[in-house]
Amino acid sequence: MTHAKKNDGARRLKAVRRVMRRAGAKDETRIEPFVLNGHTLYLRTLNAERQAAISVWREANNRDVTGLLLRLVAASVVDAAGRELLTPATAADLPANVARAIITEIEKRNGWGG
C-alpha cells in the first residue's frame, strides 16, 4: 500500500467522522431488532470505519447504485451477535419490498436522509 493510499483512507475516515458529528450521529455500532412482516431481523448501525469503507467502494463504483444498496444491506443485516448474514449477492435475492423496507430502516437508524 502506498503512502498516498494510507493518507487517503485516514482523510476519508476523518471526513466521515466530521460529517457524523455535524449530523449528531454517534460513531458507534448498535445492534437492534427490526420486525418486518412478522419476522425479527437485527440491524447494525454503521460506525465511521464501515461508512468510510463503503464510501471508498462508492467512489470507485459511482454509477452502481444497486451495488451500493446491496452492500449497505449486507453490512447491516446481522444476527443478534452481530455476525453478517448476507453478502451483496445474497441480498440481491431479497424481494424488492423487503429490501426497500430494510434500506429505509438502515437510513433511519444511521441518521441519513430527511
From TrEMBL:
The lineage's top-level taxon is Bacteria
- What name is this protein filed under? Uncharacterized protein
